[in-house]
Structure formats: structure tokens, C-alpha cells
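Thread: "does anyone have the structure for this chain?"

Original post by V.I.:
We have the sequence but no experimental structure in hand. Need at least a predicted one for the grant figures.
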Amino acid sequence: MSNAIRSSSRSRRTIPFRRKAWSQLFGSLLREAREERGRSVEEAAEAAGMSTSEWEAVEAGQVPETWEKVRRMADGLGIDRSWIVPLVLFCREAWD
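Reply from O.Q.:
Generated one for you, C-alpha cells below.
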């Protein structure tokens, strides 16, 4: 097998891994922000207009489907959007 083919198939296999890694990073940073503010998952979810299971899924590594949901989560935690935007940009591969 040529190097070009090997390289191409390797990069296709790493995309799901990279997406998962970035989404887990986003979720763990969000969890840390929630815990720093002394909020339970239930309190944070309610403040963001989400179900507890939706919030837990994001903290576990499922990326929010929309920018609106990210904004609601930030607002629910009282996080300034100037903090959440760079976080989303940093973890942008989670949405790719």
C-alpha cells in the first residue's frame, strides 16, 4: 500500500477520535465552570432552559447542536460570552 493511501485512511480514522477528544474537553471545561460557580447540574440546566439529561450529555462529551444552546448554557452559568466564544473556537474540531 502506498504512503498516500495509508496516510489518507489513517486521517479518516482519526477524525472521529479528534472530534470526541475536543467535545470531551469542551464538556469538562463546562463542568469545571459549573462546579466553580457552585451549581448543580439540575440548577444549571434549569437556568439554561434545558433538561438535566441534555446538560449531562454535553458535560459527557456530546456537543450542543446549536450556537443558541451554547449561549443559553453560558448565560445559565453567568459566563461572559467573551469567555465562551474563545472556548468554542478552541474546541471547534468538536463541531467539524
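V.I.: this helps a lot. The chain is about 75% helix and 0% strand.
O.Q.: and Residues 1-10 have pLDDT under 50 and may be disordered.
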